[in-house]
Write a structure and sequence with these properties.
The protein has one domain: Aminopeptidase. It contains six helices and ten strands, in the order βααβαββββββαβαβα. It has helices spanning 18-27, 30-35, 47-55, 115-124, 139-150, 174-191, and strands at 2-8, 37-43, 63-70, 76-79, 81-83, 86-89, 95-99, 108-110, 129-132, 156-163.
């Protein structure tokens, strides 16, 4: 199984993006090197960079997990939907002002990472993870919507908002959150053959 994990680079007050810190931990983890075909990609907090990524999204990946930071959040969030709406200024000073991401697209798109497995993750990490229906309207949502819009029927795509351990001392630390993401990969690779991700 081919897997891709992405994270975002620096932006605003985050000189080091927590999502990127966690991704780098995973990238150095021998567990992935021995057991999975997995790639990692850091995406600039830029609308044009997200556009380029989405247009070139490799169809060989069966699972794509996007990581972003939930600013000031004490808990990690599994995002189940993305909205056809975007606003905010990126690192290149490009501004979106409550615009549609795709003029002819659906108002919202749902992850096809199986709900049964999301619930399993939530129950396993009940004190640290919640399931969310609102990824915001900034670059995280922009990336998620574009990825879901352009995915093929054999791909499962999930967005994971990491808790802000840099600003919230009660948030789970990088290693703990990295372990949650490893579980997201694990339960999918073990159980996905019994579940149709295209449904």
């Amino acid at each position: 199984m081919n897997i891709l994990i992405t994270s975002f680079g620096p932006f605003q007050n985050f000189q080091k993006n927590p999502s990127n810190i966690i991704m780098k931990l995973l990238e150095r983890d021998d567990y992935f090197g021995k057991h999975k075909m997995i790639d990692f990609n850091t995406i600039d907090v830029s609308y044009s960079r997200v556009d380029n990524f989405a247009q070139s999204m490799n169809e060989e990946y069966q699972l794509i997990i996007h990581l972003g930071v939930a600013s000031n959040s004490k808990i990690s969030r599994i995002e189940t939907r993305a909205y056809n709406q975007v606003e905010g200024v990126d690192i290149n000073n490009e501004k979106k002002d409550n615009e549609k991401i795709c003029t002819k697209g659906a108002s919202l798109l749902f992850t096809n990472y199986p709900e049964l497995l999301i619930d399993k993750i939530r129950k396993t990490h009940t004190n640290y993870v919640t399931v969310s229906k609102d990824p915001g309207r900034y670059l995280c949502n922009y990336l998620y919507y574009k990825s879901l819009l352009l995915q093929n029927s054999k791909q499962a795509i999930l967005f994971f908002h990491v808790a802000d351990f840099q600003n919230q001392h009660l948030a789970p630390g990088p290693k703990q959150q990295a372990n949650i993401i490893k579980d997201i990969v694990d339960v999918f690779t073990k159980d996905h053959t019994q579940i149709d991700v295209s449904s």
